[in-house]
Design a protein that fits this description.
The complex is a heterodimer. Chain A is of the alpha/beta class. Chain A has 7 helices and 10 strands. The chains are: A alpha/beta, B alpha+beta. The complex binds adenosine-5'-diphosphate and magnesium ion.
Chain lengths: ~220, ~325
């Protein structure tokens, strides 16, 4: 599904953030991506999401070489990937409901076809009473859940989440994790970047650990 | 599929505090993804409206001139004048009768109308005044107006040669000279008009290009998010061009409406600026009627459509260009 071959990354003339990373993400897998702050977790997710090119190496996304891809093709591939940004990236002039519906609107679906799906999902993540509020008045945790809802509304084959539990209390973190696990059971591959060990302890799954630019599969916690 | 699975799962909704269910706003009919206000402000509307106004005025004026030139043309082409010059020691009246009889026998002429001395005097009146003395003292040529049978017009060259061979001091004036002059004048006016239209179009394009640029940069964040959720460049361009099309139509209606009002009120305007009935008549003689007919108003509508399309297409092209330079 996703394959990285000898990928290296540096920003400008800075140090190498990633050094010859090799990685294969299989359909239906679930990974935590961990490592200290500044290790390059966000950078790696950006590469997987095709918003950056690696300095060297090749990335295949759904079998396509993502380093030479037309903008149109990239848009098509991104529809199969859901992403939750660390800083949410919600649009302030749209309501929570409209933000969550955006991926469906963008692919030209009619509002009558997804109206209920969006409402149901928002209720399910506990934003039923926030649907018609604007993001600017939402709390950090609420924004987080809205961003997650937007990432999963299109039933992506791959979900990338950057510190998705960074702004919520442990109890809410557990619930969001359950949402991700549920999605994974339904066939979505999931990669969650986090340094929340409490969270990782709750789900026994391989961890990809970034350290000094190297990526390795770490032991399961516990 | 996933929806039902989620609902059937063991997880209860994370909140169901019914007392907090107080929507700030009900679902709107698809709020624009790019806010209109961030794309097309009032000053842009005013500028485009002025552009459309100028374009409509120009198009309407060229149309009017062409229309009255065409009408003049018809009149001129269907009338030919014969001049019988006075020659000493001959009876001019007798000569004109002979010429008239000769003309009536020629093919392609539907009516022969000799003008009397009085008629000729009437034509000269603006220069000589009503003094009968002045007139009788002058050797005034006699005129015969010919109406051409438009279904089978005569060959003017042959007719002219025939007359000049048969009579002395008789000249045929088929107004060809005038026709050529009218044609030159209307053509130059039309060319000038087209030049103005091209300039207005170029200015509109330039304004929209720079407005698209600033709209794109003030909505950079939105464009980025749209890319993240899988929007194609076509989709993004459409979100912007919607606003530019609306701008074009709105501003165009103002501009074209104002221009239509000018044409409608032209007679009143000429009076207000100090003209009297005579001035109005003079203007009418020069450019024909100053008010547009139905095809004229349709022309204004076409200008409006062109301006709106120009706004839309220019912004589409602009968005594509900016997005491609970023990829
Ligand atoms: N846009 C950027 N330009 C320059 N350096 C960057 C940029 N983004 C991240 N970095 C650097 O790359 C390193 C890894 O950052 P990041 O991927 O955000 O790490 P993490 O998400 O693991 O905290 C950091 O040292 C950061 O300063
Ligand atoms: Mg990060």
């Amino acid at each position: 599904m996703i394959r990285l071959e000898n990928v290296a990354l540096r920003y400008g003339r800075g140090p190498e953030i990633l050094q010859s990373v090799n990685l294969h993400i299989r359909p239906g897998s679930f990974h935590f991506l961990t490592g200290p702050s500044g290790a390059g977790k966000t950078s790696l997710l950006r590469l997987l999401f095709m918003s950056m090119h690696p300095t060297t190496g090749i990335i295949y996304v759904f079998g396509q070489n993502a380093t030479r891809i037309s903008p149109g093709k990239r848009a098509q591939l991104r529809r199969r990937v859901g992403i939750v940004f660390q800083d949410f990236r919600l649009l302030d002039h749209l309501t929570t409901w409209e933000n969550v519906a955006l991926p469906l609107r963008v692919i030209g679906k009619r509002i009558s076809d997804y109206k209920e799906d969006v409402t149901d999902l928002l209720q399910w993540v506990g934003l039923g009473d926030r649907m018609y509020s604007f993001p600017s008045i939402l709390s950090g945790g609420e924004k987080q859940r809205a961003a997650i809802a937007r990432a999963v509304i299109g039933k992506p084959e791959l979900l990338l989440a950057d510190e998705p539990t960074g702004n919520v209390d442990p109890q809410m973190a557990r619930r969001l994790l359950r949402l991700f696990i549920e999605l994974n059971r339904l066939g979505t591959s999931v990669i969650i970047a986090t340094h929340d060990y409490e969270l990782m302890k709750q789900f026994n799954t391989p961890r990809l650990e970034l350290q000094d630019g190297k990526l390795q599969i770490a032991d399961k916690l516990r | 599929m996933r929806k039902s699975a989620l609902q059937n799962s063991a997880n209860p909704p994370l909140t169901d505090r019914a007392e907090f269910y107080a929507p700030a706003r009900q679902t709107r009919a698809a709020a624009p993804i790019v806010p209109a206000g961030s794309v097309t402000g009032r000053s842009l509307t005013v500028v485009i409206a002025i552009m459309c106004f100028l374009a409509c005025l120009t198009a309407g004026a060229v149309y009017l001139v062409n229309r009255s030139a065409a009408a003049w043309f018809e009149d001129i082409a269907s009338e030919v004048t014969i001049q019988i010059l006075p020659i000493e020691n001959t009876n001019i009246d007798k000569r004109s009768t002979q010429v008239a009889l000769f003309l009536a026998r020629q093919p392609g002429i539907s009516r022969v109308r000799p003008l009397s001395v009085k008629d000729a005097a009437g034509l000269l009146e603006p220069w000589l005044g009503k003094s009968a003395k002045a007139l009788s003292a002058l050797p005034v040529p006699r005129l015969i107006a010919l109406e051409i049978d438009r279904s089978a017009p005569p060959d003017m060259q042959v007719l002219s040669a025939n007359i000049e061979n048969s009579f002395r001091g008789v000249v045929l004036d088929d107004h060809r000279h005038w026709q050529a002059q009218i044609r030159t004048v209307t053509r130059s006016l039309a060319l000038g008009g087209i030049a103005v239209l091209v300039l207005v179009g170029a200015a509109t394009t330039a304004i929209i290009v720079s407005a698209t640029k600033s709209a794109m940069s003030s909505n950079r964040e939105i464009v980025e998010v749209l890319h993240f959720v899988g929007a194609t460049d076509t989709f993004i361009a459409r979100e912007f061009e919607k606003h530019f099309l609306a701008l074009g139509i709105r501003a165009g209606l103002f501009g074209a409406g104002a221009a239509a009002a000018v044409f409608l009120l032209m007679p009143i305007i000429t009076q207000l600026v100090g003209g009297n009935a005579v001035t109005a008549a003079e203007i009418r003689r020069l450019v024909g009627s100053t008010s547009l007919d139905i095809p004229g108003y349709i022309l204004l509508a076409i200008v409006l459509v062109v301006i709106s399309a120009l706004c839309m297409l220019t912004s589409r092209y602009g968005v594509y260009r900016i997005l491609h330079s970023r990829h």
